[in-house]
Amino acid sequence: MATATLVSLATATPAAAQPQPPDPTYPFTELAQILSGTNHDLQAPGMIDYFVRAGILENLANAGMPWRGLFDPATWTGTDAQQRQLTAAQQIFDALVRTPPMGLGLPAHPDYLPNWSHDGNFWRNAGDAALDDDYDTPSAQDASFRYPCIQPDGDVLYETEDGVCVAHDTPGAVFKLGTVHKLKIINNRGIPVHAKVFLPEGAEGSGQRYPVTVMAPGATEKQSDVGMYTLTAVRRGFIGVTFEESGNGVGEGSLPDMWFPQGKFELCRTPGGCRDVQDVTRWLTRTPIVPIVDVHGNELGNLAAGEVPKFHRFDPAYGADNVENPWYDLMDTDHINLWGQSYGSVAISNYGYWQGKGIGIDGQPLPKVSSIVALSGFSYTTTDIPIQYQTADFDIPVPAAFALTNTPNGLVDDTDGPVGTKDLYDYLRGEHKGDSPLMFLTYEGGSHGDSINWPGVPRNVISPWLSTSYAVDWFGCYGRADVDESACAALRQPRPGLSRAFATEYSPQGPAGPSLCVTIPDRATLIQAVYRPADFTQNNWGTAKYDCVPQN
């Protein structure tokens, strides 16, 4: 697409900011937008070929990794053979009882894939996809990556050393390159958590400290499935950290580690994720990770305490099993920011609640974070941390607490979709527990997949640009020592791709001030017909409903 067209798309005022006469056909014609992203992927050069080749290679590699220990002679003849055998058994069990089993699924999106094979080919490289989840091969423990410039039309360009964004094959272009390192963090249950640290170009040896983002993927997702967010943050001057919750993706742990024990922790229905995100932030800040289980073999005692039994656990104390954060001196640990998708978003939302209490779920000290971006999955929290909520017109439309009860009910506190998320946003503003800024935005015609960079996932083609741009502006305004005033100003401005059925709202002063209208709705959407029939009728045949304060 021509540069002039891209500029026009990026600066145009969305229709929702200038209300138009009602259109009763819109709720049905809007449905077509869900497939616009899929259509873009199908037409992207080389994408189908990559999808087939990378899908085969990555799935074969992931399915084979849990069995490697059985073919290592040290497993059977080494001085620590018994421990190695238990570890191998645990890895095989975890791989079979995980979401997804054996790490099978869609390949990593090629536009955000580091060059793990070190062959200089950053474009649709199936070999890199096969190595993306490999934490055993020594040569695949670090890689370089390009800085993506996500475009409103769905294309991805890359930033050069001259600071301009061009196509991947532009002659003579010298691209900026960051570096990524793989690592394992031992959580407080003695389970290794697979993680990656993405560093901006020149960070190592720079003597600078960079603000940090920590990304938690959704259930069945791998770290690469939300890579567009982390790489966009690195491009904006952050160090990016990703991790896979115990039992999720291609990491370690089993499916029960994600969800059990239920009912034991306040307002957390995803116990594995809630605890893992707390331990990852502890690891970043070199705060001790204190085991909450017996890591030395008393599994009957662990089971009696409600924990999932294991063949083998590791010690989270910094030392032999858990390496202390080697990039600590590069990180501004006073400015750590969380974002997550779906299951991961529920966990990072819950972090705000515990930060308000001053301790973690396990009663141990909890590092403070600066801001949160919650993507398509939300739990009750307090407004002690600036929070931006992102959802979509067709995000999972299932009954959830705030869509039905307008209050946390202690049983089903999680919510998805614009109706429940708007109710949660209003509830937090009315509760006045904290004074941090809040924002609520909805993608037009989008699904639960709009905040995942799975190739081919149903989504509005514009959503990756829209979502990442609002998210990194939130962090730029509230998540770094050198506040980006242009990012703060941009949060007040509408962008193409925002919902026309739900107002995008922003409360810069938190519950103490007004909720400003970033957009004003002028259409209805089908989810309103399910949850809010009166709103659907009003939006479809009259002046659309909103209760935010129009900006001057």
How would you briefly describe this protein structure?
By secondary structure, this protein is α/β, with parallel strands linked by helices. It contains 18 helices and 15 strands.
Quaternary state of this entry equals single chain
Radius of gyration: 23 Å
**Count the strands?**
15
Give the helix proportion (percent range): 25-40%
Strand adjacency order, main sheet:
1-5-6-8-7-9-10-11-12-13-14-15
Categorize the overall geometry: globular
> How does the helix and strand content classify structurally?
alpha/beta
**Mean pLDDT across all amino acids:** 93
Poorly predicted parts: 1-16
**Beta-strand residue percentage:** 15-25%
Q: What is the overall number of helices?
A: 18
Cα(first) to Cα(last) distance is 34 Å
Main β sheet profile: 12 strands, mixed
In words, what does this structure look like?
The protein has 552 residues and is of the alpha/beta class. 31% of the residues lie in helices and 15% in strands. It has 18 helices and 15 strands. A twelve-stranded mixed sheet has the order 1-5-6-8-7-9-10-11-12-13-14-15, with helices on both faces. A three-stranded antiparallel sheet has the order 2-3-4. It is globular and about 75 Å long. Mean pLDDT is 93; it is low at 1-16.
